[in-house]
Specification:
This protein is α/β, with parallel strands linked by helices. It folds into 2 domains: 171 residues, Rossmann fold, CATH 3.40.50; 202 residues, 3-Layer(aba) Sandwich (Rossmann fold), CATH 3.40.50.2000. The protein contains 15 helices and 14 strands. It has a 6-stranded parallel β-sheet, with helices on both faces. A 6-stranded parallel β-sheet has the order 9-8-7-10-11-12, sandwiched between helices. It has a two-stranded antiparallel ribbon with strand order 13-14.
Length: 401
């Protein structure tokens, strides 16, 4: 039997799918670029006006291995069932999101490359083709090439490389509202599994444990805070399979004096596994405060996720987090911007003030009233402005502008 109503709906749907995107990037791995890519793909797939295909690119390191179960089973099934584009297929836009950056033209009408710069400088090792890096040293980039980057801080690298303002699309990262949210009902249970009592104050910091994360500063500040507040605890979450974070943490511990090591050794919990998103969201619930004394970041997704989960923030002032935190839920560490030489180039970095970091960590413990307000303000702000659907809407507008 002919159903004209159904046929009409199919015609409408076909008319809505007017724009096509081929996304070239990584899936099934916990690297930040891959996680951004996958959350973004899910948001694009929720849009009836966008048709999406993918091309899986080689992982950055040969030792990296795909991991199942990072996303909820229905979302993982959707991600794995995406149609793969042919190598020579043409779309309205090809969006690349991987390292090293590939600025070569695609078969699509427009080529857009995602990339971050932690130090506000593009470096040769970030380029798939070194010739493109050399060309940027001598002339402006091709006029039809565009880049996506998640913060004003990161965008400076592209401006310095000669990209016009309209070639640099600043689009922040987001959070999944159903995953990263306050979960007071499970807080005591999750803390109990990590052997934390109700009267202990838990700081949390997540990252690769490399120098740009400021872990050395955090350890030193924590050693001082412990003297005044013996109930303080610190949870550090690394990612050993991708970054060998445990090795970096060990090196940072060696910088401390024997007295400092003895003071904090039994008060630190280190986790180095690769967690599914749901378990990461649970981990945030452990914390009374999230601390990120970073020196250089392209965006800093854990700060956004922590705030979404209702965790008060301590983070560096002057960097990319200034784009998405407010004084209502974040206390920012005074810092100085410095130009330093790195691999033959002058790069930018921030140097957080250690004494101010220590004071802010202490104030987090002491100022219970502010913390209670920050729990509400942080979650409200992030959920109102930085869900993946919201930031992907911004991306789509800029891609097709």
């Amino acid at each position: 039997m002919h159903d004209s109503k159904l046929d009409g709906q199919q015609v409408t749907d076909k008319k809505m799918i007017a724009r096509s995107v081929i996304v070239e990037g990584w899936r099934s791995i916990a690297h930040s670029y891959a996680m951004v890519n996958q959350w973004q793909l899910l948001a694009l797939l929720r849009r009836p006006d966008i048709a999406v295909k993918v091309i899986d690119l080689p992982f950055y390191r040969k030792r990296w291995r795909p991991q199942k179960g990072l996303f909820r089973p229905p979302d993982e099934q959707i991600l794995q069932s995406l149609e793969t584009a042919r190598p020579d297929e043409r779309a309205d836009v090809s969006l690349r999101i991987s390292i090293p950056f590939d600025f070569s033209p695609s078969h699509s009408q427009h080529t857009v490359v995602f990339g971050t710069s932690e130090t506000q400088v593009l470096r040769e090792e970030q380029f798939l083709d070194p010739k493109m890096f050399e060309q940027l040293q001598q002339a402006a980039p091709p006029p039809d090439l565009r880049v996506v980057t998640p913060s004003r801080w990161s965008a400076e690298a592209y401006y310095k490389a000669g990209f016009r303002n309209d070639q640099v699309l600043i689009v922040p990262h987001g959070i999944d509202a159903d995953t990263f949210c306050p979960m007071p009902a499970i807080r005591d249970d999750v803390r109990g599994k990590l052997s934390f009592s109700k009267d202990q104050f838990v700081f949390l910091s997540i990252g690769s444990m490399t120098g740009n994360k400021g872990i050395d500063l955090l350890l030193r500040a924590f050693s001082v805070v412990c003297q005044k507040f013996p109930n303080a605890r610190l949870v550090l979450k690394g990612l050993d399979t991708l970054y060998r974070s445990n090795d970096f943490l060990f090196k940072n511990m060696q910088i401390l004096s024997d007295i400092e090591k003895d003071r904090i050794r039994d008060r630190i919990t280190y986790l180095g596994g690769s967690f599914p998103n749901a378990d990461m969201a649970k981990l945030y619930q452990v914390a009374d405060a999230y601390v990120s004394p970073y020196r250089a970041e392209g965006f800093n997704i854990p700060v956004l996720e922590a705030a979404a989960c209702g965790i008060p923030i301590v983070c560096t002032r002057g960097g990319p987090t200034d784009d998405f935190v407010t004084d209502a839920f974040a206390r920012r560490i005074d810092s100085q911007k410095k130009q330093v030489e790195f691999m033959g180039q002058e790069v930018s970095r921030l140097e957080p003030n250690l004494e101010h970091l220590t004071a802010l960590m202490s104030s987090m413990i002491e100022d219970r009233d502010w913390r209670e307000r920050a729990v509400e303000e942080g979650s409200r702000h992030v959920h109102a402005n930085f869900t993946w659907d919201q930031v992907t809407e911004m991306l789509v507008r800029k891609l097709f502008n």
